[in-house]
Automatic annotation (TrEMBL):
It comes from Exiguobacterium sp. (strain ATCC BAA-1283 / AT1b). Transmembrane segments: none annotated. PANTHER family: ENTEROCHELIN ESTERASE-RELATED, FERRI-BACILLIBACTIN ESTERASE BESA. InterPro entries: AB_hydrolase_fold, Esterase-like, Mycobacterial_A85_antigen. It holds the Pfam family Esterase. This is Esterase.
Amino acid sequence: MIETKELTITPFERTRTIRIYTPADYETSEKRYPVLYMHDGQNCFDDEDASYNMSWRVGEYLDASKRDLIVVALDSAPGEQRLDEYGPWENPYIGESLLGRDIVLGGQGSAYIEYIAQELKPQIDADYRTIPEATAMMGSSMGGLISVYAACVYPDIFKRVASLSSAFWFNQTELEQLIEASDLKGVERLYLDVGAKEVEEPIENGPTNEMYRESSERVYNLLKDKVEHIRFEVIEEGVHNELAWRERFPMVISYLFGEEL
């Protein structure tokens, strides 16, 4: 079942849609479940709600696999506010190349993650039969950047994290410095990947396929010395859209929540 609610992200006083998936047996059992928090929630479940009418079809896969998992998917903010909320640090340069405007983007990601960790998660744990100590996070592109940031800042909360096709380049230097300074022993499993064909239509001064790959490799090389169970994949035919991430989702879930390593 997928339940849709409206909430207020209190640091920004912004109303946001949240979509909560519960397994088919949730109403008839007394089991408790791990929770996966996902970004870009409008793209997680239904094609008609998703950007470009392509979703991850998360509920479809979880229903078919009968996996015991609650998913809490937060819709992204509209337009450039998405970059603000998913960017932990300000980037004063990228606005010109991405949007053709001299504006500062990013800088609200720390407050966004603090909201999830300190306000939303406690509420979800109170309202649903969760396993509070079994909490994961997953995102793609900028959602991947903010997910790795969350693992660094709250490694004892977000213990299993997946970051697909990550836009680490948005805050590369700051993220690397944070990783180096972080104690990540609490992170139980960490998945990273990057597609070889992330950028299908390059823009002037924008990210390139080489930038995506080099950026992810640099982050992985720092993380692999700090997280015991980590997996990094280069997806040779991987492109930058929800259909590609949908195809990888079962494999990523199996790694995050499977018993074998």
